[in-house]
Design a protein that fits this description.
binds adenosine-5'-triphosphate; alpha/beta; binds magnesium ion; six-stranded mixed β-sheet
Length: 280
């Protein structure tokens, strides 16, 4: 059975008088438990497709079905102004800053007010349809190419964040021990049990990517999306991260990645090649 299916996805950007057609009728079916890689030249629309599949971005035409239910309300597709970038909310790091309860005496809102590295802005989550918002929090995990960890939170806190979203303060306090146990187990799984209290700037690139993967797994996502998870890493570290993803997939995790690395892509179950906005 397919877990994710998209039909006739069109996405374009207005550039003054011209229109840049990035996705031109993409049809794709992703069966549960598969490891799928999306490849293509730079600018071919790989990230755009990943964002649409994961509900981070809205197409102008077409629909994505997750577990046989439409991901986007038809009104959301019609309403999206042509050329506007992702409306689906800034990357999770920013959303967590806004929604997370107090951590070790430091409020997430407080952190959000401080100047610091910002994730690229994708928009405002408050406008999201309820189902898509819920899926983004609960069913999908996303690993961004540049990690998007919160610089003022340590490794354990960064991984805890997705679980905090959606909990009231009372609920969070009641569940904290159990959730923290899971976060520690995930960090052990990615080999970072000795780095729990490091801040992101005290980690190597590969370690940051591992934190990002642990964070994406925190809510037991039904699909894990990763945009060039090995793109910024040396070959050996990239291989380690890829092997970690393969292990996760071996345990049943559905994974969709974007990669430039054809050798790695060849090891996945399905390779989707984008050429001129279409699947080749
Ligand atoms: N907000 C935007 N406004 C206008 N054009 C955009 C916008 N976002 C992306 N594009 C354009 O859409 C095209 C596809 O972008 P996308 O990021 O999906 O490419 P990609 O295949 O992921 O490339 P890369 O391998 O370099 O990451 C590019 O030509 C890009 O310039
Ligand atoms: Mg890209």
């Amino acid at each position: 059975m397919s877990i994710l299916r998209c039909e006739n996805i069109h996405k374009s950007y207005s550039l003054g008088r011209t229109e840049l057609h990035v996705l031109r009728g993409i049809d794709l079916t992703i069966p549960r438990g598969q490891f799928v890689s999306i490849i293509g030249n730079s600018g071919s629309g790989k990230s755009t497709l990943l964002h649409v599949l994961s509900g981070l971005d809205v197409p102008q035409r077409g629909q994505v079905h997750f577990e046989n239910q439409p991901l986007f309300e038809p009104e959301a597709i019609r309403k999206i102004p042509r050329g506007r970038n992702c409306d689906a909310g800034e990357p999770f790091s920013r959303r967590w800053q806004e929604k997370s309860p107090d951590l070790s005496g430091r409020s997430a809102q407080d952190v959000a007010r401080r100047p610091g590295p910002r994730s690229p802005s994708i928009g405002n989550t408050q406008t999201l349809e309820p189902r898509r918002n819920q899926l983004l929090n609960e069913a999908f995990g996303f690993v961004f190419q540049f990690y998007h960890l919160l610089p003022e939170f340590d490794v354990l806190e960064n991984v805890l964040l997705p679980a905090m979203v959606g909990h009231s303060m009372a609920g969070w306090l009641a569940q904290r021990a159990k959730i923290e146990h899971r976060a520690r187990a995930l960090l052990q799984r990615v080999g970072l049990q000795d780095r729990l209290d490091h801040r992101p700037n005290e980690l190597s690139g590969g370690e940051r990517q591992r934190v990002a993967i642990a964070r994406a797994l925190m809510n037991e996502p039904r699909v894990l999306f990763a945009d060039e998870p090995t793109g910024n890493l040396d070959a050996r570290t990239g291989r380690e991260i890829f092997d970690l993803l393969k292990d996760l997939n071996g345990a049943g995790q559905t994974i969709v990645i974007v990669t430039h690395d054809r050798d790695l892509a060849a090891e996945t179950d399905v390779v989707v090649q984008l050429v001129d906005g279409r699947v080749k």
